[in-house]
Amino acid sequence: MLWRCYNIDMKAIISIFFLTLALPVTAQANKPAKLGLCAACHGENGISRIPGTPHLAGQDEAYLRKALNDYRSGARKVAPMSSIANQLQPKDIAAFAKWYAAQPNGFKRTKTQ
């Protein structure tokens, strides 16, 4: 066999092959199931294209989680956000916060003088 000629371990080759197959699935597993609820206004990547709608990409995960919970409880009163947040379960809120916090914000910070 060819792998014996080159002293290649077949177990290593098979392991690498299956790890390669698993990578694309793992990368997409973090996308929240209900992402469409947020993406309509805030963009799937967290960069809003609607004037006046905040960008969520790169925001602090704890902040995003608290904001969604505050919309749900009524502590923050913005009608569209409250109606959407009331459709979410705690696991959805955690998934959104994690997703948007992990997105690159797309903005370069400049030094202030």
Written account of the structure:
The chain is mainly alpha-helical. It has 2 domains: 1-30, no CATH class; 32-105, Cytochrome c-like domain (Cytochrome Bc1 Complex, Chain D, domain 2), CATH 1.10.760.10. Helices cover 58% and strands 0% of the residues. It has 6 helices and no strands. The radius of gyration is 21 Å and the shape is elongated. Mean pLDDT is 82; it is low at 23-29.
Low-pLDDT segments, ≥5 res: 23-29
Order of helices and strands: HHHHHH
> Please, what is the CATH homologous superfamily of the largest domain?
Cytochrome c-like domain
Radius of gyration: 21 Å
* Beta-strand proportion: under 5%
CATH fold name of the largest domain: Cytochrome Bc1 Complex, Chain D, domain 2
**Name of the CATH architecture of the largest domain:** Orthogonal Bundle
Q: In CATH, what is the class of the largest domain?
A: Mainly Alpha
Distinct helical segment count: 6
What number of structural domains do the residues give? 2
How far is the first residue's CA from the last residue's CA? Answer: 67 Å
Based on Cα principal axes, name the global outline: elongated
Q: Tell me about the biggest sheet?
A: none
Number of strands: 0
Class per helix and strand makeup:
mainly alpha
Mean pLDDT: 82
In short:
The chain is built from 6 helices and no strands. With 113 residues, it is mainly alpha-helical.
